[in-house]
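Predict the 3D structure for this chain.
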Amino acid sequence: MREINLDNLDDIARGAGILGTGGGGDPYIGKLLAREAIRAYGPVRLVAFDEVPADATVVPVSGMGAPTVLLERVPAGGEEVAALRALEKHIGRPATHIAPIEVGGVNSMLPIACAAQAGLPLVDGDAMGRAFPEAQMVLPGLIGVANTPMALADDKGNSIIVDAVSNHAAERIARAVCVELGCQISSADTVMRGDQLADGLVPATMTLAERLGAAVREARAAHTDPVDAARAMLSGTHLLTGKVVDVSRRTQGGFARGGARIEGIGDDAGRVLELGFQNEHLLATRDGETVATTPDLICVLDTDTGDPVTTEGLRYGLRVSVLAAPCDPRWTTPGGLALAGPRYFGYDVDYLPFRQA
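Done. Predicted structure below.
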């Protein structure tokens, strides 16, 4: 058994921001919420899958909405617990464990805060191995786990239970609620038993986030390349280092949608990389050729610091390095690609299998 405390929270936030592929919400905001919860309630126990009883009630919690809104409408801090309590009341039993729905940005931090406030252990794993924008884009769906009943809560005390006929229907209903409540709410959903975790979640991703964040921090302290340290930890490949010269971004339907254009510098001078995103980076095209697609990870890092750059944080003039890394192999199955492949998001390209450079 390990714990998440004030000593390792920074590393987890940094690593989860990278794994979030530009989405999941600003990890800094989430870190502040998790830090205050740990200060008030104490460290959070982090447990591996084999430490969770088979009949446990594991509840993933998360924030839902447009990351651009999160920058201006910071959560109050109790929304996840409110959603959790509403779900417990509906299903008629208490949660025994909390889990992250995704290991990305603020949605890696909010489960920590919720677990601290509720006094529950946190499962070391998540339902994506990265971040995705829609509620049905989770690996438990591939083994038949429903994401409803789903409890939604906002910062005003409103809550609602969604009980839908399918995971896709739940996303549409929840997104409509999210938009009506200001594009920033919290959710408790996708209830799992302990004996479903190995098949339904990606293991040890909170530990990976901590190791990834520590690798970047240690590289900076040693005056070596933090971006390369992240690339090595992810078994990834370098796509381009350059300057952001254009960003097109809009908040639409509860998502941050758009793209960015990056012109290469240094060894990449003369090359151009274009990114397409819906909360998360989904497509990378270099010099007119597709070089990485969802569900593989496309990560944008500050070239000097190795810190993650979210899609809402992209701005003209920023010097960034773009990496690609392999996703959990379950995402590359026909069922996984139907949920989160490039054609689902409207891109007229097939999934491009990850290639190590």
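Residues 205-221 form the longest helix (17 residues).
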